[in-house]
Amino acid sequence: MVVVASAVVMSRHNGREVVMLCEECHSKMLAVGELLLLSCEARPVFTAQTDLELSRETFLHYRDRVIDKLNHILMASRDIASQAHSGAVQWKAFTARLQELGGLVVALTELSAHIAYLMAVNFERSQTSALGVVNKYKLHQAQLDLKFCCSRLKRSCVDDLDTHLLVDLCSTISRALSSMTEVCRYASENAREVDDQNQFKLCIKSITSTTSCLISSVKRFKSSPSIDHLRRIIAFCDPVVATSSALVTFASEEEFVGMPAKLSDKATEAHKSVLGMTMSIVSASIQMCKAIRDLVYDLSNSRHKERIRLCVDSVDKASSKLRDLLLSCDFEPKTGSGPTKTGSPERQTGSPERKTDSPERKTGSSNADNVSANARVSSPDGVDGSAERETGSETVSPDAKTGSDDAKSGSGSPDVAAVLSGMTASSPSLNLSVSSMGSISDLERDIGVSD
């Protein structure tokens, strides 16, 4: 009896922890989705030289990583729904799984935005983006990390901030500071105007000073936890958020971040189709976080559990659509295509931390065929992906897989155009608009929720 009660009835401490985690995951997924998906800006997310090559090898590499993330997201969401419907929820494991889901969705958003860029700029009459002296996404990502760390510190009580959590927060703050410093240092060395160079140098000093004060106050609290030392932490959180926000606003000016790619009409359609399908997954994951938060407040309400199940179904259907589109696309580099020229050491190295969770880059058609076959299993219970797609989403028409003679003669990427036209013809309800496929309000209406 005691075991069941501890598993089902949530303590006040566990409840606050789950709620804060739900809101953090919700905010992070939404922020990254707005930046990379809803903005519809055709920019590369990963800027290493090999990541910018318009080659079949690069496309297959990112396609396989997207499919891998889709499979993991589906397994994590199903596991969360299963635990929520069970009679005994292990909240520690539950929150860990929820946090994992948030990270997977953010990673999928980054990968999908990048592969959508590669597909779009491979069309004829499309031009690649011009990289600036500032890596826009890397800078925004660092700002988000600082913002969420400060929010967590400000909302915590003395008892919430254990040693493990403090170490994690300080590590995240340090990494974000390092990223911002790296971006600003390169910009200060390569900006055209001397005044701008000096401004970036001052930005480095400003963010370093405020962040160092915050980390110092966290260390003091760690050695001697008290309400006074917690107030000190809260006091230094606001300058960090304000300074990072001002830095990002300045560094995100058009003259520093470069220009997005110029796309033809067909390229824009292909770009938005991938972004829209990905936004559907992000929207469903956000709604799942909201449903879990509401479930914490009312564990006996079956309606919240049903909302979680509906969100998992939405993730399943959108994942099948995105997987089908990518597997049906035969990426052939247009004539004369080559890697985007960059002169930045940062661009040469790219973002190595983004590579740690991905498999080694696969080469050759044999590996691609193996991945295409294996990727169709999208559920942990071994259900075949083709059967799942027949029940969960529209089937891609044969024309979308083979292309057409007209498309081959009229576009540098005929098969992408054929895929899109085939999907639209076979599924009139498939709208390639980001706003319609990725609308959070639409999903709320489907499951009967409004905040």
From TrEMBL:
Residue span, Talin IBS2B domain: 171-252
Residue numbers spanned by region Disordered: 332-420
MF-aspect GO terms: actin binding
Ranges of compositional bias, category Basic and acidic residues: 352-363
Compositional bias (Polar residues): 337-351, 364-377
InterPro entries for this protein: Talin_IBS2B (IPR054082), TLNRD1 (IPR042799)
PANTHER family, alphabetized: TALIN ROD DOMAIN-CONTAINING PROTEIN 1
Annotated protein name in UniProt: Talin IBS2B domain-containing protein
